[in-house]
Amino acid sequence: MACAATVLADGCASHGGSPVSTARSAGSPSSNGVPPGRPSSAVSATPASTVPGAGVAGAVALTFHGDGTPALATSLLSEAERAGAQVTVLAVGRWLGEYPQMARRVLDGGHELGNHTEHHIDIDALSPVAAFAEIEDCAARLRRLTGSIGRWFRPSQAQHATPAVRAAAARAGYPTVLSYDLDSLDYTDPGPDAVVRRVLTAVRAGDVVSMHLGHGGTVAALPAILDGLRARGLRAVTASALFPRSLSVPEVSRR
């Protein structure tokens, strides 16, 4: 059963903007402000029973911040495809502006494409008008390039979206915001072995894992991560496959 808090942010920075949170992290903060370990799960006012049975048994969602060079992004997607895995890419709009071909590359590989704001600035610090513009501008790029804004929005530089950002996302067409259960910390470039160890030590069925395109160590780590998931009887699927039902909550999480 999914908890009443998911679909919220990546590991780019932490923010305690959720109505209620329960700490699951341990250790000192990372270089970008996210504590190591599992981030706290925000609990919305909507009861968990609104999403009973959401998710696919024996699956996890590997989600990727969409930025970096096309060569690294393509290498990572190709590694996933060789293993029969599907991933979700939350694209930064300016990245798609610079490399518009990457939108089709993601989708043509059987993966999923979503919105990670236009400029990847601290969205929780923006006014409601500016926050909406960040989401809407990226959504417009997605629509122009693919014909769809995608199902998911993930806030930039925030673990949790504030109520104002959630409202802006809903206004832009994203009723639910995508978060994560496990932060790989791959953006700190700790080396492939550390990324593999961090994910496989902590991952559980139903998790949403935060990772990043644009990092060579992440590309190198992915085959071992996928092998380790298979050894645990887990499949890597898109966020929409993990949460296949229509969601009526502003945030959802598996924990």
From TrEMBL:
Domain of life: Bacteria
Region (Disordered): 11-48
Stored PROSITE patterns: NODB
InterPro entries in alphabetical order: Glyco_hydro/deAcase_b/a-brl, NODB_dom, Polysacc_deacetylase_ArnD
Biased composition (Low complexity): 39-48
One MF annotation (Gene Ontology) recorded for this entry: hydrolase activity, acting on carbon-nitrogen (but not peptide) bonds
Listed Polar residues bias regions: 19-33
GO BP term (any one): carbohydrate metabolic process
Residues annotated as domain NodB homology: 58-237
Name of the protein in its database record: Polysaccharide deacetylase family protein
Source species of the chain: Actinocrinis puniceicyclus
